């Protein structure tokens, strides 16, 4: 019988529409503007009296509180008005000490029964949701110094293996200088080192006990190192941002030594800076023996007890660069630790060093590059100058009980939070050179709300115009098309929510375009039905022919547009990708609603029934 679907097809269409409705519902529950209070080191707690005092102070200031959630070392205060966020944060920060970080946040408000179905709202981009924008600068001088330190360590090992005595090493700028007891040792060292290290220009200076080998890194090697440092930092920062779970972040190079990082939805700038900008690394070194010459040792204090010190060998066994994976856990006494797996080269070096030093202590040295702002007077004006400095401290000093391989653990950490952050940094990789924050900009949710309001208004205006046109032009069939259009929008939102796609302003433009394209298929079908009626076919035959004969044209037109959208997504970046995503999903949902949903409504209304006149 013409214009009748089997029961299974009606059920299938109904299930798809129901799933789409359920998974689009979370978008009706926008995130709450909130203020998050957390411990700096992860071990401080907020007691009930402090929390009551904070709540009362906010109420006295006329700030409405939607709810307060407290768990261990973290408190989340939900607010009713985004404009109250900044004022609340400043008030709370003034009440609490330096042991706490008070930051802006956006708290999820999706009902529990939807969360149980893994339903969540669409992810919004930086232009809609707000977030943070960082401009970072790579410290090229530090990158050069680090490379020279590594080369110096390797050179010292070569000299010791060939029993060539040296008196000391010195690094200045891009020059590495070795001092020897006589000219013969210097010349032997030059022949040995020059074979392995070809990125230096070699020169001899002094004589007797002041004989020196001066090695200056070539201009090409310096340029290659700087390019490597920026690219390696780009990769590391992308890994760290991925660990943060930020949707649609942007990490890209700007100029010769700068990197731009944009994190949509991130309001806790302190936490973001702590992870993104962390320049921490680890070094594994042996403790110096009592008879080790002073020129081969360095003294360091413990991070958790500065009064304790230990003398370590200058030579590094491995660094954090050799770590392939790291995870946080707890030891048998419930203290935090980090489980580490090394790559092949790191495992070999660790095994070689520990196999011949059983019973000797091995230290884990934590290194972090920081900056501090100092004020200087220049030409009678106060100028703020950024001064880089490096903090080094021992995490642990343990006896080597047996030869270590690719897997071992680090203990001696202060808190689970510190262990988690250290594991994250080791997993994502250490930076090839320190980076410093040149610019930090927070895009507040109020700006995003304004963009969302304008975007929604554009969708509404487009939807109203399309609805009116379809009603006037196609009457009852226009109602079918308009219902399908609403369902199409629902399915599109559900698909984006389920796939975790990010909605941006260009994405909203894609939705508006989808609304217009969605009725194109219905227009083709309805006009085809009119033609069939004018040619003398019966109403049932005209409906059937209209859908069947318009099918090929509709699919061909939408497939070509879909191919263009896929190309845009594959080669585009940022806004172009956002537009391509909504356009691609919109084409798929439009085909479903235009060809199946409207057909099922027409079939249920006219199929198998005597119809004298068709309102189209």
Automatic annotation (TrEMBL):
One of its GO terms (molecular function) is protein-transporting ATPase activity. The chain crosses the membrane at residues 455-472, 479-501, 507-529, 550-572, 578-597. The keyword Membrane applies. It is a multi-pass membrane protein. It comes from the Bacteria. Residues 438-602 form the Protein export membrane protein SecD/SecF C-terminal domain. One of its GO terms (biological process) is protein targeting. Residues 230-287 form the Protein translocase subunit SecDF P1 domain. GO terms for cellular component: plasma membrane. Pfam families: Sec_GG, SecD-TM1, SecD_1st, SecD_SecF_C, SecDF_P1_head. PANTHER family: PROTEIN TRANSLOCASE SUBUNIT SECD, PROTEIN-EXPORT MEMBRANE PROTEIN SEC. Part of the Sec protein translocase complex. Interacts with the SecYEG preprotein conducting channel. SecDF uses the proton motive force (PMF) to complete protein translocation after the ATP-dependent function of SecA. Belongs to the SecD/SecF family. SecD subfamily. This is Protein translocase subunit SecD. It comes from Halomonas chromatireducens. The gene is mdtC_1.
């Amino acid at each position: 019988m013409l214009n009748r679907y089997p029961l299974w097809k009606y059920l299938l269409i109904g299930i798809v529409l129901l799933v789409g409705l359920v998974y689009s519902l979370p978008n009706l529950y926008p995130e709450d503007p909130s203020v998050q209070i957390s411990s700096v080191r992860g071990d401080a707690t907020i007691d009930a009296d402090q929390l009551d005092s904070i709540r009362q102070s906010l109420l006295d200031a006329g700030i409405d509180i939607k709810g307060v959630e407290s768990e261990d070392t973290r408190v989340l205060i939900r607010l009713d008005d985004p404009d109250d966020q900044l004022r609340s944060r400043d008030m709370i920060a003034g009440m609490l000490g330096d042991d706490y970080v008070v930051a802006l946040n956006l708290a999820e408000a999706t009902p529990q029964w939807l969360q149980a179905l893994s339903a969540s709202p669409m992810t919004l981009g930086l232009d809609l949701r707000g977030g943070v924008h960082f401009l970072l600068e790579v410290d090229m001088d530090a990158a050069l110094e680090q490379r020279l330190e590594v080369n110096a360590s390797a050179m010292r090992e070569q000299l010791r293996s060939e029993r060539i005595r040296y008196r000391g090493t010195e690094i200045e700028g891009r020059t590495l200088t070795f001092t020897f007891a006589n000219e013969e040792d210097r010349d032997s060292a030059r022949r040995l080192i020059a074979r392995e290290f070809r990125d230096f220009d070699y020169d001899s200076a002094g004589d007797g006990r002041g004989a020196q080998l001066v090695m200056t890194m070539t201009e090409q090697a310096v340029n290659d190192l700087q390019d490597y440092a920026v690219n390696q930092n780009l990769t590391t920062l992308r890994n760290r941002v991925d660990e943060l779970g930020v949707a649609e972040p942007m990490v890209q190079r700007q100029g010769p030594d700068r990197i731009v990082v944009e994190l949509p939805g991130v309001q806790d700038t302190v936490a973001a800076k702590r992870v993104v900008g962390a320049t921490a690394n680890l070094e594994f070194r042996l403790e110096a023996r009592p008879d080790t010459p002073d020129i081969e040792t360095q003294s360091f204090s413990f991070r958790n007890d500065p009064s304790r010190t230990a003398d370590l060998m200058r030579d590094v066994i491995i660094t954090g660069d050799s770590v392939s994976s790291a995870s946080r856990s707890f030891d048998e006494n419930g203290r935090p630790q980090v489980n580490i797996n090394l790559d092949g080269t790191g495992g070999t070096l660790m095994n070689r060093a520990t196999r011949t030093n059983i019973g000797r202590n091995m230290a884990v040295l934590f290194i972090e590059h920081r900056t501090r702002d100092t004020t200087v007077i220049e030409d009678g004006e106060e100028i703020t100058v950024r001064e880089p400095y490096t903090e080094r401290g021992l995490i642990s000093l343990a006896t080597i009980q047996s030869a270590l391989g690719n897997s071992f653990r680090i203990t001696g950490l202060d808190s689970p939070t510190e262990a988690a952050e250290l594991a994250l940094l080791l997993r994502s990789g250490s930076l090839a050179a320190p980076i410093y924050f040149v610019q930090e900009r927070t895009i507040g949710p109020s700006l995003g709300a304004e963009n969302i309001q304008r975007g929604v208004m554009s969708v509404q205006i487009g939807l109203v115009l399309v609805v009116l046109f379809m009603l006037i032009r196609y009457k009852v069939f226009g109602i079918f098309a308009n219902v399908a259009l609403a369902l199409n929008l629902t399915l599109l939102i559900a698909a984006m929510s389920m796939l975790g796609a990010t909605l941006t302003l260009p994405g909203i433009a894609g939705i508006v375009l989808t609304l217009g394209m969605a009725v194109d298929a219905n227009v083709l079908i309805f006009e085809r039905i009119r033609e069939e009626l004018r040619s003398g076919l019966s109403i049932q035959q005209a409906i059937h022919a209209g859908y069947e004969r318009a099918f090929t044209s509709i699919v061909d037109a939408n497939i070509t547009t879909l191919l263009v959208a896929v190309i845009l997504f594959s080669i585009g970046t940022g806004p172009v990708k956002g537009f391509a995503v909504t356009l691609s999903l919109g084409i798929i949902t439009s085909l479903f609603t235009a060809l199946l949903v409207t057909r099922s409504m027409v079939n249920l209304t006219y199929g198998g029934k005597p119809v004298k006149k068709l309102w189209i």
